[in-house]
Amino acid sequence: MATVLGVSAHYHDAAACLVRDGAVVAAVQQERISRVKNDASFPAAAIAQCLRIADVDPGAIDRAVFYEQPFAKLERVMRSTLTTFPHGLSGFVAGMARQLGGRVFVLDHLREHLGLSRDQVMAVPHHQSHAASAYLVSGAEPAAVLVVDGVGENETTSIWHGTGGALVPRYTQPFPDSLGLFYAAITAYLGFAVNEGEYKVMGLAAFGQPRLEEEFAAFITVHDDGSVTLDRDTFLHMVHPTRAFGPRLEQRLGPARPFGRPWRLFDPADAHYADVAATAQAVLETALLRLARTAHRLCGDADTLCLAGGVALNVRAVRRVLDEGPFHEVFVAPAAGDAGGAMGAALLGAQDLGDDVQRPLADAALGAPADAARAQAVAASLGFAVARPSDLLGQAARVLDDGGLLAVCRGRSEWGPRALGHRSLLARPRPAAVQDRINAQVKRREPFRPLAPVTTRDAFDGYFGGRCDKLQRFMTVTNPATAKARRDCPAALHVDGTARAQLVEAASDPWLTGLLARTAEPVLLNTSLNAAGEPICDAVEDALLFLMRHRVAALVVDDLWIERGRR
Amino acid sequence: MSLWRRLVARLRTVGDLVGFFVRQNRLFFVPMLLVLLAAGVLLMLTGGLSYVAPFVYTLF
Fold first, then answer.
1. Within this chain, do residues A395 and A532 fall inside the same structural domain, yes or no?
2. Which residues in chain B have their CB less than 8 angstroms from residue A100's CB?
């Protein structure tokens, strides 16, 4: 019966997760508190938040677990430098400065921060953290686990056999051949920020045609088992600290797209970039599908595939694995990227101390609860109108049916990159122009970015095809839209006729299912509550700031109805 | 925690790191690592990395 803290930090998406007696009790990403998107710094605030939520004193922590082994990572940096000598020297200097500047001493930092002894702090392998974050909360037994990301210590892809709560390694692909780093390089080529713009590449892909297979074949080979070989002269992640690709990529695909240039998708130049995105997406899907088949072969008794690592956030690829792969079921945890590693690390630490940690994750609401009393006080000081309506759901439904945008900040915040109705911006999903309005006026982002629908189990099949299972609870897969969806909720569909639909059930979220029962259609548009370039709101102050700066009808904080108009 | 205890903890970690490379049969990394660590300590003692960092590249 242990209290274990898991931590991820120093690369991207720093986070903390607290597991008590084998159950996840709190999980918070540092960016939600620091308000710095993808914040990678040591997550002191996230740790404090987790301890506060669980009402745990730092002295009560039995073990703290870091999600990666710093010595093994350092060894890879040094080995890589020797392998590529003398080309990798600039990368080596930058890498060593980062490693010796703090990363190697991260366990010391963690120990000093929490006041723990040396034997209470440990590190687990990066890919094992990812694998645990999916398998141990999936509810599947046994399971095949596929981890695909940029790079961990040295692995870029790994397959694990999850059985009886243990993870047995079956396959690894080492650095530098990496599906995640390939996609990251294309992200950079298209003028997006790496570790942030990969979603944009996926969204852009639907506007293009995968017609550049021959060009791509010159720098990436996808083998029958799903492993990839990258051309060392095209991709620079082995030798350069900041550049993902070299001139050879531009010789093949044309000049890279300048960062920040506005998109005009019907312009031939941007249509070409959409084709690049479509081809990269097709390559990624092919590789992931083959890897799933390899996982099935290596873990013959498993009906379920658990996916983890940043690549598992590619919802289009997950759909293909589900439809065309050999597994009956696929599971993706709500935070599949590096933040999720904190949860995996905590679970592995608790398991090492003898706790039974294998239990399905019922809900992604693992962050801090909304503080309605605080919201009321701050809203009043700002001169906002605050009310506690007797029929809040009816009032919310009327606003939405009239075309208003409704911000909600209720209950505990979500774990992972998806807003699942606790820190969300809701809207009626028609007409189609609602999507453009939100993208242009609220999110201030590229016009091709899709928004997602949320609906109930009873209504799901009427609006969406494809299998409906655990994936839709955490919004980790796309579903094809039916004719009814194209008619009734066009603003929540992507241009390819699919949607990253969320399924909400009364048992886990009676408020949202209640609202869906009161609106004209049992489908709402649900997008994350955040301004352009900011992390999703967490505290009520963040939500009130959002209300202050955006044209939304009202903000709901638990049972409060807050409007910008003066009392 | 006192500076002295922190320094001792860091040195113990460096010892663990050297031990890690020895166990992995990566003995050839150890001199490289020690030179880099010594350079790192020297940089810190001589007034901070920010002044010296632009010249580190020229060392190679």
1. yes
2. 36-37, 40
Is there a domain that residue B60 lies in? no
pLDDT digits (tens, 9 = 90+) for A462-514: 999 987 778 899 999 999 999 999 999 999 999 999 999 999 999 999 999 99
B59 part of a folded domain: no
Same-domain pairing of A49 and A86? yes
**B24 lies in a domain?**
yes
Ramachandran quadrant class, A25 (left: phi over 0; alpha: psi -120 to 50; beta: rest): alpha
Q: What are phi and psi of A178, to 5 degrees?
A: -145, 125
Q: What is the CA radius of gyration of chain B?
A: 14
- From residue A279, alpha-carbon distances to A65, A208, A233, A249, A293 in Å are 39, 8, 20, 14, 21
Residue B13 is nearest to which of A78, A89, A104, comparing CB atoms?
A104
Tokens of A4: 């274990």
| Contact residues, chain B to chain A, C-beta under 8 Å | 1, 6, 9-10, 12-13, 16-17, 20-21, 24, 26, 29, 32-33, 36-37, 40, 49, 53, 56-57, 60
Per the structure, the count of domains in chain B is 1
* CATH code of A477's domain: 3.90.870.20
Cβ distance of A97 and B13 shorter than 8 Å:
no
Identify the domain containing residue A289 by its residue range. Answer: 179-331
Residue B30 belongs to domain spanning: 3-52
How many domains does chain A contain in total? 3
* Chain A / chain B CB contacts < 8 angstroms: 47
In angstroms, the separation between the Cα of residue A71 and the nearest Cα of chain B is 6
Angle between helices A198-205 and A315-324 (to 10 degrees): 60
Contact residues, chain B, for A96 at CB < 8 Å: 36
pLDDT tens track for B44-55: 555 555 554 444
Are A389 and A345 within one domain?
no
Dist CA A270 CA A272 (whole Å): 5
Set of chain B residues whose Cβ sits within 8 Å of the Cβ of A118:
9, 12
Residue B58 lies in a domain: no
| pTM for the whole structure | 0.93
Answer yes or no: is the ipTM higher than 0.85. Answer: no
- The CATH number covering residue A277 comes to 3.30.420.40
